Amino acid sequence: MKKKSAALQALQDENTVHSSKCSAYGCPMWGSVAHETRPPYHMWCPVHFFCAPERTQAVTAELNKHLGLIDEIRKARHGLRDDRALLNQLFKLCDV
Ligand SMILES: [Zn+2]
């Protein structure tokens, strides 16, 4: 069995702690944005929130290639540092 990368483990721990995973199946990011204005909310990561619905799976596959960058975003957020440049990089990589 393949060993999980430290970045993936950190992201899964993050999702466990906040229990708000992105609603896209298999997405390694946390959910932070909802389309709905009333419960039940489906939380999406910002990349899936802005991607075209037909590109959801392609975006998930791309996000899973950039776990290190996602971990950097998580660390920036925890450190209350500006993560916009990192997030913009992720949007470009996912063509969103
Ligand atoms: Zn997502």
Please provide a written account of the structure.
The protein is mainly α. It has one domain (6-93). It is 50% helix and 4% strand. The chain has helices at 6-18, 46-50, 56-63, 67-78, 84-93, and strands spanning 33-34, 43-44. Strands 1-2 form a two-stranded antiparallel sheet. A hairpin with an 8-residue loop joins strand 1 (33-34) and strand 2 (43-44). The radius of gyration is 13 Å and the shape is globular. The structure holds zinc ion. The site of zinc ion has 8 residues, from helix 2.
- Ligands bound to this protein structure: zinc ion
- Strand order of the biggest β-sheet: 1-2
Rg over CA atoms: 13 Å
Beta-strand residue percentage:
under 5%
Shape, principal axes of CA atoms: globular
In total, the number of domains comes to: 1
First-last Cα distance: 33 Å
Percent of residues in helices: 40-55%
Helices, by number, come to 5
Chain-averaged pLDDT: 87
Compressed to H and E, one letter per element, the order equals HEEHHHH
Task: Enumerate the spans where pLDDT stays under 50 for 5 or more consecutive residues.
Answer: none
- Let me know the number of strands: 2
Question: Strand pairing plus helix content: what structural class?
Answer: mainly alpha
